[in-house]
Structures are given as C-alpha cells and as structure tokens.
Amino acid sequence: MTSLDVPDRNGDVIDRAAGLASGDPLHAARRFRAKVVDATQASHDALLLQPVDGLSSEDRLRVAAHVCTVAGASSLARHYQELLARSPARDAPPSAALPAMLHFAATLTTDPRRGDRAAIETLRHAGLGDAAIVALAQLVAFLAYQLRVVAGLRALRDAHEERQP
Question: Exposed site from 23, 98, 103, 121, fewest CB < 10 Å?
C-alpha cells in the first residue's frame, strides 16, 4: 500500500456520489452485475493506492479532485478531497510536475483530442516517466467512466423521482 494506507471502506464511491442507498431500485439494479460494481471499486482503489514510480497517491488524488471539479461533479470532487485530507502525507508538497498533470488531465477531460504527443511530451519535460504518464492517463480514463456512470445514475434517479406522485 501507499501512504494512504487503506482504501476508502465507506461503501461504493459511485453509489454515494449518485445518491443511491441500499433498498433503492437503482442500487439494486447496479447489483444485477455485482462483478462490475466490485471491479469498478477495485479499479478506483488500485489506481489511487498502488505504487507508481514518480506519481504519488496524493498527487493522483489532487488530479482526481481537479478533474471532477472541471467536470462539475461536486460529490466526486469532495470524495477525492476527503481522501486526500485523510492521507498521512497530505501536507507533503506536491510534485513539481503537478501543474502539468492537472493541465493534461483537464485537457483530456474537456477535449480528449488534445491529449496528443505534444501533451505527453509536456509531461515528460515536467519530469514524469513513462510509468507515471501511463498511470495518469489510466486514472483520467477511469474518472471519465466514473463521471459518466454517476451522471447516468443521477439522471435515472431524477427521472424516477419525477414520475412519483
């Protein structure tokens, strides 16, 4: 494990971000494919907690919170900010490459076509190696998935609530 020590064990991140609770029809519907729910949470934990040369868990949390803020997903942004606040290394200075990482992640989030060779070269010039660049891109891809699932679940929940008398 990393300096974060243990994954967030307060339940499924997507359920919390989408406002789903045990007993809700959408909560139950997500469990129809429980393997997907479990794999999604395991991906979250691995992408944030597994050691990566040149990319701290804390910087990954900073990137995740930034991406979610850029995407307007306040509940997910809060989740990542809370994980960072609980990290024993939360007060350690961020990497000198963090501004480049934040820019790269925001670019991939808002205009993925601009995540080209030049964007990757900017990360290299900022000091990131190949393993860190790959891990950063994987994190941003996961966040895109997570953002879309949460948005879809919220839309379904809202549509269901509108039909209730």
Answer: 23
Residue 125 to residue 127: CA distance in whole angstroms:
5
- In the CATH hierarchy, which fold is given to the domain comprising 13-163? AhpD-like (1.20.1290)
* Cα angle 126-131-133, degrees, rounded to a multiple of 5: 45
Query: What is the per-residue pLDDT across 103-126, written as a single tens digit (0 to 9) for each?
Result: 999 999 998 888 889 999 999 999
The answer to whether the beta carbons of residues 18 and 52 sit under 8 Å apart is no
Interval 52-98: pLDDT, tens: 999 999 999 999 999 999 999 999 999 999 999 999 998 889 999 99
**139, 101 Cβ separation under 8 angstroms:** no
CA distance linking residue 96 with residue 128, whole number of Å: 10
Cβ-based burial of 20 (10 A; exposed 0-12, middle 13-18, buried ≥19): buried
Note the Cα 13 to chain centre separation in Å.
10
**Nearby residues of 48 by Cβ (< 8 Å), 6 or more positions away:** 4, 7, 57, 60, 61, 64, 83, 139
What's the length of the chain? 165
